[in-house]
User: Fold this.
Amino acid sequence: MKNGKVSYPYQKVTDFFVQAMQDDDIPPWEKPWISNGTSTHRWNGKEYRGLNWLMTLSTGREGPWLTRKMINAAGGRIKKGEKSIPVVFWKISGYKVKDEKGAETDEVRKSFTMFYYRVWSLEQTTVPKSKYPKWLKEARAKNKPKKNGKALAKSVKESTMAFVDYIKREGIEVKEGSDRAFYRPADDSITIPSESQYKSSVEYVRTRSHETVHSTGTPGRCARFDYDARINPFGSEDYSKEELVAEIGAAMLDAQFGLRRPKVDRNSAAYIKSWAKRLKDDPKLIVSAAQRAQKAVDYILDRKFDEQEPTNGSD
Assistant:
């Protein structure tokens, strides 16, 4: 397995997303599908998080995902012409801080280095069904697509319950009925149009999720901006970064409840070109945005996780 480090993995990941946007004419965080219960999982049954969740989901392929070694061990092979995708992991090392004279002190700080390895989805392989793990068979049986409206209503209800729990826990004021949607740090409030103003309940939840992720940015939560300051001006670099966090975070949040993302009506070509340029200009942007989005979703749902993906591709 060949791993890159320092700038190369960031560039590799950025190239993946830029190419995906150009191929599909839609950003990965706005794909109209959701996880089918296995799309974002590793072979051992654990779900990818953050950047790896976004990368595996954006392919539209049915998981789980395996390394070449895992595929061979399960008695399969990679189908001819099938391409892998990169997934990342971090290695942590410690170093002693030096004083003004260059001498080492007793203070130890952590250093994080990003690496990547390559994986293929199960559908890209010939792994026999007899080798499928038990968790996979159970997940596929449980997550068969439901076509009735009851399933959608249940997902919307569960999303709303999580939202209510969050705003009560944090003391956030919610104002409905406006023609605009925004989060205001100054008074810690979320303003959104009422549900009746949307074409569907899913579109309403999508907007609510976006603004809810913004609300995690204050100090005392995930600390991406100040209480007293507005979210940075429209069109600024910082505004773009925060919008990317909110877009990815909203997609993650909706997927937690099985909500399919509605098709976004916008000038697709200009939108794609704009994001592609930002990602190319800053190869670390998509990585940091996905990490911050995952942190925001965990905060909203009051979850505690080990922030690191596995330290290698063996599991």
User: Anything to note?
Assistant: The chain has a mean pLDDT of 82. The first helix runs from residue 7 to 24.
